[in-house]
Design a protein that fits this description.
CATH superfamily of the largest domain: Resolvase, N-terminal catalytic domain
Largest sheet: 5 strands, mixed
Number of helices: 7
Structural class: alpha/beta
Number of domains: 2
Number of strands: 5
Radius of gyration: 28 Å
CATH architecture of the largest domain: 3-Layer(aba) Sandwich
CATH class of the largest domain: Alpha Beta
Distance between the termini: 78 Å
Order of helices and strands: EHEHEHEEHHHH
Length: 195
């Protein structure tokens, strides 16, 4: 087997990657893997998409330097499923297996690939749910009279009505609601009159 990369990450400077590195190193030694490169991001949140050591690992992985990447837990690669799947896609493209020892995932095995595919399917399902909720929310907002898109230009006759309503003592918000004009549009008409 060619070189193996291990990756460890902790979110705060108060924590240390030492425990993860020791666990990952012991795992590699138990399999007889001696050519091991260590990458560690100390004090870097998994929410961040760019992490110096993970980025360096990814670059070297893409050159074919490693046959496997070993991590203790999936969340070390990222806090979102999308980030993890992007890493796995890069590893697949480079012909590199990913091993997550705490979850027993090894993408070189049928069970590991099944777990990866199930996670990918769940991520796609989650994206579709978000899109559906967005469509429903927009439809509901439109049904309640919410306007979307760029504000429409206020015609001179509409501007005249705004001025008349304001002169009668209607509040800006009342004019906005009754005439179905954005509050900013009402203010803009009245500001023009003050110039």
């Amino acid at each position: 087997m060619s070189a193996v990369a291990i990756y460890a990450r902790v979110s705060t400077k108060e924590q240390s990657t030492e425990t993860q590195v020791a666990q990952l190193t012991a795992y590699c030694q138990s399999r007889g893997w001696t050519d091991v490169a260590v990458f560690r991001d100390d004090g870097i949140s998994g929410v961040r998409d760019n992490r110096p050591e993970l980025d360096r690992l990814r670059q070297r992985m893409m050159t074919g330097e490693f046959s496997a990447v070993v991590v203790s837990r999936m969340d070390r690669l990222g806090r979102s499923l999308g980030m993890i799947l992007r890493f796995w896609d890069d590893a697949d493209a480079a012909g590199v297996r990913v091993i997550v020892i705490d979850q027993g995932i090894d993408t070189s095995t049928p069970a590991g690939r099944l777990q990866r595919n199930m996670l990918a399917a769940l991520a796609e399902f989650e994206r579709e749910l978000i899109l559906e909720r967005t469509r429903v929310g927009i439809a509901r907002a439109r049904a309640l009279g919410k306007k979307f898109g760029a504000p429409r230009r206020i015609s001179e006759s509409t501007a005249r009505e705004v001025r008349e309503r304001r002169a009668r003592g209607e509040s800006l918000r009342m004019i906005s609601q009754r005439m179905n004009i954005r509050l900013g549009g009402v203010r803009s008409v009245l500001r023009r009159d003050m110039r």
